[in-house]
Amino acid sequence: MTLAPALHRLSLSKQKQDFWGVQLEHAIEEYNHAHIRDQQQASLGSRKVYYELDQFHRSLSRKPRPATIIRNWNCLHEAGRIFTEINLKINSDVVESFHDLSFGNPKDRELLRSAAGKARRWFYNKRGTEHGPALRFLVRSVATIYRLATGKRPGAGSSNTASGHFYSTPFEDLLLATLQITGLEITLYGARDLFRSELKGKFKK
Question: Structurally, how many domains does the chain consist of?
Answer without folding.
Answer: 2
